[in-house]
Write a structure and sequence with these properties.
The protein is an alpha/beta fold. It contains 9 helices and 15 strands.
Length: 338
């Protein structure tokens, strides 16, 4: 296939000043200070509780999370962890972001994202033998898992680094290679949910979305910048893109592709496709976007021979009538550096 012009079409959105502009800093820095003070006091409170041995769960718990708002690859990483543990004795507990329900719900492969959230649903479909649960009250969720499924020995708490009401046995903090937490600032000035110093709670730090062939010198320089905030061991990983899977219609990869994403950071996937000289039209929706019929009609009007989307997006799109449109999903997995 010959290289074609790379096109990136985004849906209309509200324009905001660049985060390094003086105007943006002048407006957001005071708000970030107030937010940071509140978060700092909250962490002091829970640090004192945890030192007293409070908030320990009745089951072994492992937290996966990040300091920033989305885009660090938590779902592929949790999937990676599940492949390393006994599926019969391991459970995943998530808040179920974006769902329209409340309370404790166990996820089934034929569920819908509106009921359980897109990420828990994807994890269940990728690991059908694993118990996947959504519950906004993590402590209640753990207690209920213990009561209903006494054979469970480990609960992985997805996106729960800031959920301090559970004192976990282990915490894994994710940060990306290109947007590390040590170069970021607190909301709304930057993307951090809490101070950089929160990294000291991590038992392990995993750097995600790294280039495939980073040198030892680059790793050492990166680790040096993390060390002021955490003494936890640091490992590196990169994203591997698998072969496309045809999930609807007749396979057709001969010409142009419309890429549809509703994820926090589609840029790495776009870069991967661009490196393959694929003619791509990109339709970018907000993270966790719940598609409706108007969205589907808009997507179908694109002049492309096939649609490509992420596995996480497809769980929110599959319920619609796509006619004879050819649709692929892009499998993604985490590969840890040796």
């Amino acid at each position: 296939m010959d290289a074609a012009p790379y096109r990136n079409r985004r849906l209309p959105k509200i324009m905001i000043p660049h985060r390094t502009s003086p105007f943006w800093i002048w407006i957001t820095a005071p708000m970030a200070f107030i937010y940071g003070t509140a978060i700092g006091l909250r962490n002091v409170y829970f640090n004192l509780r945890h030192k007293k041995g409070l908030d320990k769960a009745a089951i072994k718990t492992l937290v996966v999370g990040n300091l920033s708002v989305g885009g660090t690859g938590k779902t592929p990483f949790v999937d990676h962890l599940l492949k390393q543990h006994n599926s019969n004795t391991t459970a995943v507990l998530s808040r179920g972001y974006g769902r329209k329900t409340k309370g404790y719900i166990e996820v089934y492969p034929d569920d819908v994202a509106e009921r359980v959230g897109d990420e828990p649903l994807l994890l269940k479909r990728l690991n059908q033998a694993v118990l996947v649960v959504v519950c906004e009250d993590r402590q209640y969720g753990i207690d209920t898992i213990k009561k209903r499924h006494p054979h469970i020995e480990l609960v992985i708490l997805d996106d729960a680094f800031q959920h301090r009401r559970v004192n976990p046995d282990k915490s894994i903090l994710l940060t990306t290679w290109h947007q590390p937490f040590f170069k970021d600032r607190l909301l709304p000035w930057g993307n951090l949910r809490e101070h950089r110093s929160g990294a000291k709670r991590a038992s392990e730090i995993v750097v995600t979305k790294c280039p495939k062939n980073i040198s030892e010198e680059e790793k050492t320089a990166f680790i040096k910048q993390i060390k002021p905030y955490s003494s936890a061991p640091i490992t590196f990983s990169h994203t591997a893109y698998g072969k496309w899977r045809c999930v609807h219609g007749k396979p057709d990869r001969s010409k142009s592709i419309a890429l549809v994403t509703g994820i926090a950071n589609p840029q790495p996937l776009l870069d991967h496709l661009r490196s393959q000289s694929i003619d791509v039209t990109h339709l970018a929706f907000p993270d966790h976007h719940l598609f409706d019929q108007k969205d589907i009609e808009h997507i179908r009007k694109q002049k492309a021979d096939a649609i490509l989307t992420t596995e996480k997006d497809w769980v929110r799109m599959a319920r619609f009538d796509w006619g004879d449109v050819c649709i692929y999903t892009q499998p993604i997995k985490i590969v840890m550096s040796v």
